[in-house]
Amino acid sequence: MSSFATAEVCDAHAPHLANGDLRALAPVFKTYGQCRAFSGPVCTLKVFEDNVLVRDHLETKGEGRVLVIDGGGSMRCALVGGNLGQLAQNNGWAGIVVNGCIRDVDEINGCDIGVRALASHPQKSNKRGIGEKYVPVHIGGTLIHDGEWLYADSDGILVSKNELSL
Predict the structure, then answer these.
(1) What is the pTM of this model?
(2) Is the terminal CB of the chain with fewer CB neighbours within 10 Å at N or C?
(3) What dihedral do alpha carbons 106, 108, 109, 112 form, nearest 10°?
(4) For 84, left (φ over 0), alpha (ψ -120 to 50), or beta?
(5) pLDDT in tens, 53-72
(6) How many CA atoms lie within 13 A of 73 on its CB side?
């Protein structure tokens, strides 16, 4: 991955912002993990207070992808913890974006991946295996499709219909 800055990406791709091919997520996410900037093709999940599908995905080869989890914005439990952060790192995921909470913040901050989430919460999630894979998700005020590209750094998160030349 080449070096990038989301602010510069916005400036260089203003027509794509105008037509919706490039979208900025609302600035509601906190930054976790050692990678402050990350990018890659998106893999989507839609779950609610249940992280079985999250683990299932992170157990596969990430190949530089970004797992985007629509957890419904729940603030009642965590969908990703330290073990899953380590699993993501070990399997080559570039990052994880959670529309919900994480836990084991110190462990996740020790992982060589990028993580964005709304907050932390000490309680673990349910384990029922309920959710949807590879579906469009609505996060941070924008619709995100499986296979799109995500770019995240200290300034924010961008989603593009296609990989951008940076």
Answers:
(1) 0.96
(2) N
(3) 150
(4) alpha
(5) 999 999 999 999 999 999 99
(6) 6
